[in-house]
Amino acid sequence: MHNKNVEEEAYWDKQKERITLFLKYNYEGVDKITFEDTYKLPTGTVGIDGYVNDDKELDFSADIDSGMNFEAGGSTSAKLADMSKKEYRVKKKTVSDILKENNSINN
User: Fold this and answer.
1) Which domain of life is it from (predicted)?
2) Predicted TM-score of the model (pTM)
3) What three-state secondary structure class fits 91?
4) What is the CATH architecture of 2-106?
């Protein structure tokens, strides 16, 4: 039982790191991210809700397909959507694409 809890906590932590990277890359002025709730839907999809910059009107809900890592799915409040970087308003850059770009810069 203990190992399962440790594995599950590690999974949630990894998803929070990926969500943080996604938000800071695709949105202007994201300084702080607060995660409020993690949950599993009957479909197997998992979700993480939170908000940015200590403003609960800048909220988001990240969706993650069962057994996968967070890439870009979910929803944001209109106020947070207004903070999208101009080049990512139509299509957000996925976490995998951000990581690939960072690896090519660092190599």
Assistant:
1) Bacteria
2) 0.91
3) coil
4) Roll (3.10)
